[in-house]
Each structure stands twice: as C-alpha cells, then as structure tokens.
Amino acid sequence: MLQFRYSKEPPFWNLSSLEIMAIIVGPTAFVCAIIMVYYFCRTSKQSRGGLHHHLQHGEDSIEAPDHPILKGVSLKHMIEMTTSGSGSGLPLLVQRSIARQIQLVESIGQGRFGEVWRGRWRGENVAVKIFSSREERSWFREAEIYQTVMLRHENILGFIAADNKDNGTWTQLWLITDYHEYGSLFDFLDRNVMDTGEMIKMALSIATGLAHLHMDIMGTQGKPAIAHRDLKSKNILVKSNGTCAIGDLGLAVRHDITTDTVDIPLNNRVGTKRYMAPEVLDETMNVYQFDSFKRADVYALGLIFWEITTRCNVGGIYDEYNLPFYDAVPPDPAIEEMRRVVCIEKQRPNIPNRWQSCEALHVMSKLMKECWYHNATARLTALRIKKTLSNFRASEELKM
User: Which residues form the Protein kinase domain (predicted)?
Assistant: First the structure.
C-alpha cells in the first residue's frame, strides 16, 4: 500500500533564495514593462500633437489658443483651485516655477518703476512688469498688496506671480499679471470712441473695482480696506469684454482696522500730480484718517469719468481725447501749477452743455461733479457711485 507523507513545510521552502526572487520579481517586471510601453506611446502621441499645434500657431502669437497647462489646467483654473477664487495668490514655489518658464515677446509700455512686456507661458499671454534692482521696495510692496487675502476680483488686475531673475550681472524683479491686449484705458480712449451703453458699462466696472478695493471685509479670512493713491487712466486696463481692471497697486495702503492706522509710513503727497486731490496738493489732508485716502481716490475717479465721457459718441458728436486739465497746465505740470489751478482757482475739467441733453451723459456729469468736490467729506463713496451706475444701467435695460 502506498503511503503519503504530509509535510508541514510549504513546497517552495525547499527552493533557493535566487529561485524565490525570480518568482516574485518576474511578474512585477513584466507589468512595469507594459506600463512603460503604454506611457511612452501616449507621450509620443501628445508630443506629435503639440508639434502640429505649434506649426499652426506660433508660440508668441496673440491669436494662439491657450495650451492645456499642467495636464489640462490653465493659469485661470490653477489660480481658482489654489486660491478658491478669493485667496492671496499662488504658492511661492508655483510662482517661481511660472516665472522661470516665461518667454518675453515684446515691450508694451514703460511704467513708473520699469518696463512692461507681453510674455508667453505655455501658450498663454501674460503681462510682465520688470523692476530694476534699485526698485526692490516698490516691487515687493506691489506684490504684497496684490496677495492681500480676498483681493482677487474681476475688476482688479489679476496677479499671477512675483519672482527675481539673476543672471550674475544684474537682478531683475518680475511681477506677472493677466495680459489685456487693449492695453490701458489711456491708450484705449486715445484710439476709440463708444456709445452710451459701453460708456456706462466701463464706468461701472471701474467703480465696482474701486468699491471692492475700498471695502473692509470682516472675519478671520477678511480683507482690509485698501486705498490706491495713484488712480489714473494709465493704471487701468481695458478687458476684451469692454470692462476694466484696476492695476498698479505699488503705492496702495491698507487699513489696519484694529489700530485704525495705515500699514506703511506715509508720504503725504504721492501719486500723479495731474490727478491729485486738492487736499493732497495743498497738504491739508488728514493722513491719520484712512477715509482721507479713499476720498482722494474718488476725486481721481471723477477725472477718469470725465476722460471716458468725452469719448462717448452721441449722434456723431464726441470730443478728441485729452487728459484732465490739458488746457490749464503743461503736459508735465509742477505741483505749484496744479495747486494754483485746482486749489486756488478751483478749476475742474469743462463739462459741455450738450451733455445735459443726453440722459447717460447727464448722469455721468452729475457723478463726476460729486467726485471732485473741493470739500473731501462731501464726495460720494465708491460704493454709492457703483450703485448709482448699476441702477441707471438696469433702468436703461428695462426700456429696451
């Protein structure tokens, strides 16, 4: 009779260690090889598609559609995901990564602290403001303001990244923001006229941006009130949909609500002389009261409204584009000249009589007058201006 002997030891215990390793590693290596072949084929296909895309649209073409970024994530989506739409900017490492991959394409302007370029980042247009190393404080301040919690808004220029570029000889400081091909409001008005609907839409968007800037949002993730201090048509960008975004926040100050102070030592007279409020020009502004800075912004807003309204085409009649006080002071006026015109003579830009016969122009002229009162406390708030324009626009739409 045959007898079977049962062994308590598993049969593979009698195998050598080399044989056991082969049993374990063999199938694993086979699976890895299949994955690598699949990945290689897919990557190769994507590369050929990307090459075909570049042949159709040059990398520095404005018309080139946005490439999928980070496997389908565009700059806009990346910012929305990272900041939840209202946060304080992209993580520092992401900002530095973006900045180091930007290709400068063309110079599009000269600012107070440096040059502005159109750049490309993986198929998307961006604006790159380049500061010299001597302007490090200005660069740092503007980047700091842009990254204020809950500042992000459709009528505030969209901040993307800040980084420094050092080639061993000199250091460049980069501030990267959204790119708007229509350029500044100054450039846009010089080249274009608009109808009453477009004028109201544009003015409302600027007032909305300023109201958001001026607003205190309470809470642990709250936003401090911010005063711009250099609001002018050259510091406002025109978007493709005809609305505007306020930019150039390098001179802005934030309100510390707990101590009722502003967050940096103040230079009483700062900004662009042509747009300075009377109390700034004659140095009578109460620099210890934050509302003073908001009222000075509103004065400048009134001048900007005048610039916009002069370019409104009603019945084929409109004015040539000019800066405020173009007929009263030289192109680069001195403080003393502006003080004489604005504070002593109390001049304001001319409002043509024909504006009173058009309801939209009449509303705009009434608003600008209430923005540039000599008495700062009598001026409207940005929020009140926003509500007035919003209500007028709504009533006009109901008539259509």
Answer: 102-392
Q: Which domains does the chain have, with CATH numbers?
A: 75-178 (3.30.200.20), 185-399 (1.10.510.10)
Residues 387-398 pLDDT 10s? 999 999 999 988
Q: What is the pLDDT of residues 37-47, one digit of tens each?
A: 554 554 444 43
Respond yes or no: is residue 178 known to be catalytic. no
With contact defined as beta carbons under 8 Å apart, do 254 and 315 qualify? no
Q: Which residue in the list 163, 230, 248, 297 is annotated as catalytic?
A: 230
Provide the pLDDT confidence category of residue 4 given band limits of 50, 70 and 90. very low
Does residue 305 contact residue 312 with C-beta atoms inside 8 Å?
A: no
| Rounded Cα gap, residues 192 and 242, in angstroms | 11
pTM of the model: 0.80
Known binding-site residue numbers for ATP: 129
CB-CB contact of 253 with 263 (8 Å):
yes
| Distance between CA atoms of residues 229 and 211, nearest Å | 14
Point out which residues pair with 261 in neighbouring strands.
Answer: 256
